[in-house]
C-alpha cells in the first residue's frame, strides 16, 4: 500500500523505509511478512531527563543574568556598554 503511494516497487519501498529508520536513528523493526513497521518505545531515563532539563535551565539562567547585568549598567552608569566615552568616573575628560 505504501509502495503504491510512493510509486515504488515493494522492495524499493522497503529499502526506502530501512534507510529512513537508519537515518532518523529510530528504534524500529520491519515485519516483512505482515508488511508492518514496529516502532520501539524507549523513554529517556530519569538521569537523561534531568540532564536535558538542566541544560535548558542553565542557558535560560545565563541569558537572564546577561539581561540583568545589562539593565544594571544602563541604570547605574547611564550607558548601554557601547558609549564608553560617556563614562568618566574620575572626571578626566571634562570640557
From TrEMBL:
Residues 1-44 form the PCI domain. It comes from Desmophyllum pertusum. Keywords: Cytoplasm, Initiation factor, Protein biosynthesis. One of its GO terms (cellular component) is eukaryotic translation initiation factor 3 complex. The keyword Protein biosynthesis applies. It comes from the Eukaryota. PANTHER family: EUKARYOTIC TRANSLATION INITIATION FACTOR 3 SUBUNIT E. This is Eukaryotic translation initiation factor 3 subunit E. InterPro entries: eIF3e, PCI_dom, WH_DNA-bd_sf. Pfam families: EIF3E_C, PCI. One of its GO terms (molecular function) is translation initiation factor activity.
Amino acid at each position: 500500500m505504501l509502495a503504491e503511494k510512493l510509486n515504488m516497487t515493494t522492495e524499493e519501498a522497503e529499502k526506502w523505509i530501512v534507510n529512513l529508520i537508519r537515518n532518523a536513528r529510530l528504534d524500529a523493526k520491519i515485519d516483512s511478512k505482515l508488511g508492518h513497521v514496529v516502532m520501539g518505545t524507549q523513554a529517556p531515563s530519569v538521569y537523561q531527563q534531568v540532564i536535558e532539563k538542566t541544560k535548558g535551565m542553565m542557558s535560560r539562567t545565563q541569558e537572564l543574568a546577561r539581561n540583568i547585568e545589562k539593565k544594571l549598567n544602563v541604570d547605574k552608569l547611564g550607558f548601554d556598554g557601547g558609549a564608553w566615552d560617556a563614562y568618566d568616573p574620575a572626571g578626566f575628560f571634562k570640557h
